[in-house]
Amino acid sequence: MDIATNLLYFSIINGGGIVLASIGEWLSERSGVLNLGIEGLMSLGAVTAIIAVLSFHNPWIALIITCGVGAICGIIFAICAIIIKANQVLCGLAFTMLGIGIAEFIGKPYEGIIATEHLQPMPIPFLSSIPTIGYIVFSQNIMVYLIYIIIPLTIYVVFFKTQHGLNVRAVGENPEAADAVGVPVTRIRFFYSCLGTILGTLAGGYLILASVFTWSGGLIAGQGWIAIALVMLGRYRLVYMILSGVFFGFITAIGFEGQVFNWPIPPVILNSLLYIFAIIFAIFPSFLAKNNSKKWRAPAALCTPFFRSNR
To answer: Alpha carbon 235 to chain centroid distance?
Structure first.
């Protein structure tokens, strides 16, 4: 395969972790809960995955254990931010710092060890035989299909084609009005906050088992923050978030390819590409939002605790 084909192939793989984490953040924010702990959750997910896969020699067991860790973290976060009604920003930042610290501490003995068992490509019959496109899109591992196709389609149907989805969006926009018509605001926020946390942790596990195959301190390196920015960059629309995630995966792939093939570009520049484009894309929506403020805005009740007495 030529360099361009490999770049596109690995763009999809590398972007998967960011896309999955951003979907988790999107779910949480749609219910009105801001979770800034994605960076720490991805770190915990990554270190959990490497420990589990080295212990059980099965990537699927590792992903299940990673989801379990995410569920525990989600329950703790939801209790703090939704039940106790602590400041959501501070709760998220606390999770980021704790997650990174705990991950680097327990992951120290596993640094540099390669996970020999990881997610294998699963070509789709007939489609994978299409020249070029078949290799790039239809010869990926099963998690790629879940992240880019199955999970987004399921979310779209649930959120925009069912009464439950309307209730969740109402909770994110006006929880008092939703509560007045019998929607269980606290229960919905609790559930989607936990689900978002699970996906954020799973994103870290995905990076270990599908992309880098080894753990090192600082592995996530800001991808959690990029995932949060992706929600805004994608205008709270799943399609735009996915496309943005693939783009950042492409930037990451360029950095890897440049170092592997000794491109005449300083490694520090290649390593910085992801963050340079993240800054550019974080600024870009603010200009477009001036003329389309309603389309670009976050849920109205985002980061606002719900008190039933406010009705």
So the answer is: 16
